[in-house]
Structure formats: structure tokens, C-alpha cells
Write a structure and sequence with these properties.
Layout (H helix, E strand, L loop, with lengths): L6 E3 L4 E3 L6 H9 L4 H7 L5 H13 L1 H17 L4 H35 L10 H6 L2
Helix pairs in contact: 1-3
Length: about 140
């Protein structure tokens, strides 16, 4: 027996009765004119019937849904992390960049040494003089 698919509100806004996916989760794809197949590629747990239910709700409550979408986008555009979180993220980025610089410097030195001595880097699966003959 197939479960009835409705749009309900459990406190997070309108959502499918069969899952936790909200109408607002799918609205951007309707706005971009995604096909049902494209939406199902992104959200494979959705059935065609569930997408149809959301689309039906969207068309019946279009202005209300679009207003909520506008408010969500406006709120997200102004969201920033607290200064202490930004400082942690900045330090983490600097540490990653420094680690990459050190790694690159090691490879660069090794490459220059090999180049000066005439040693070529071996390709995976090849060894010794046989690989040098191929260059």
C-alpha cells in the first residue's frame, strides 16, 4: 500500500509528509526549471509523486513560498561568522597555505637536485635504466 503524500508543517515550514525534505529545499530547482529527472539526480530519495506534490503546493502557494525564499536568501546573504570563528578559520587557512608552501618547496628542491644530477623521475611501474631509455 502506497503512503499518501501531503505537505505538512512540523515547525520547519512546509515539508513532505513522507520525508524531512521541505518545499524550500526544492524551490530553487523549480526556479531553475529543472526536470523531475534532474531533481531526482540531486535528491535520489524523492519519488516523482513527491516532486509532483511539492510542485502542486508551490503553484497553489506561489507568492507565499517565493516570499519565504526571498527572506531566506536575504538572511543568508548577511550571515557572517562571529569574529572569534573568523579568526580560527583565518589561522587554519594560513596553516594550510604554509603546509602547502613547505611541501612545494621540498618537491621543488628535490626536482632541482634531480635535474642537476641528470636523474629523471621514474614513472610508476618502471625502474632503472629501462625508464631512462624512453625519455
Amino acid at each position: 500500500m502506497q503512503r499518501e503524500i501531503n505537505i505538512i508543517n512540523r515547525g520547519r515550514g512546509p515539508q513532505l509528509s513522507t520525508s524531512r525534505i521541505t518545499v524550500q529545499d526544492i524551490v530553487p530547482y523549480f526556479q531553475l526549471n529543472y526536470s523531475y529527472d534532474q531533481i531526482r539526480e540531486i535528491m535520489p530519495s524523492l519519488s516523482v509523486a513527491e516532486i509532483e506534490a511539492v510542485e502542486r503546493y508551490f503553484s497553489e502557494h506561489r507568492e507565499e513560498v517565493l516570499e519565504v525564499d526571498r527572506r531566506i536568501r536575504a538572511r543568508n546573504a548577511t550571515r557572517k561568522n562571529p569574529p572569534e570563528v573568523e579568526a580560527i578559520l583565518r589561522r587554519a587557512r594560513e596553516e594550510r597555505l604554509e603546509a602547502i608552501r613547505k611541501l612545494f618547496a621540498c618537491f621543488s628542491v628535490e626536482f632541482k637536485q634531480r635535474r642537476r644530477s641528470g636523474i629523471r623521475a621514474e614513472r610508476p611501474g618502471q625502474a632503472g635504466a629501462a625508464s631512462d631509455a624512453r625519455y
